[in-house]
Amino acid sequence: MSVQLELDPMLRGAVEHVCPLQPVTGAVPAVRRRVAAVLAGWKVSREIVEDALLVVSELLTNALVHALPPAQLRLSWARGEGVGTLRVEVTDAGPAREAGQPPAGVDPDEHGRGEQIVHALATRHGMRVHSGGVTRWADLVAA
Predict the structure, then answer these.
(1) What is the helix (H) or strand (E) element at residue 124, kind and residue range?
(2) What is the longest distance spanned by two Cα atoms in the chain?
(3) Which of 71, 75, 94, 126 could staple 21 via S-S, CB 3.0–4.6 A?
(4) Sheet-wide strand order for 3-6
(5) Which residues of 90-111 are buried (b: 16+ CB within 10 A; e: fewer)?
């Protein structure tokens, strides 16, 4: 299920899209396709769409590999004074294992660069720990 909402009416074209992430094979590519369609519908600047899809992939994969379900993706797009900001948020139920313990069967040479990728592509990024789990977010800004 997904939801599209209009956000603050003071921001021209501010909208939001929410969808759950199912912990199944093929979930990340399916959500990427959905995100691409949503961003096209919102007419998000082409300059950030590819970066946004990569950020979505990295944050979703992190939630699937390292956290407890359920996970949820929330996108919001707001156009202001000549600038558009896309916020990508992924919320999960918190860590699946103690800090420093790699997931079983994960080759460290093949994983572990997602955070660096998000940091490189996002204008701002961060993490909030709350009673429902953990939310990792990234903002991508386009002129």
Answers:
(1) strand 124-130
(2) 49
(3) 71
(4) 3-6, 12-21, 71-79, 84-92, 133-142, 124-130
(5) bbbeeeeeeeeeeeeeeeeeee
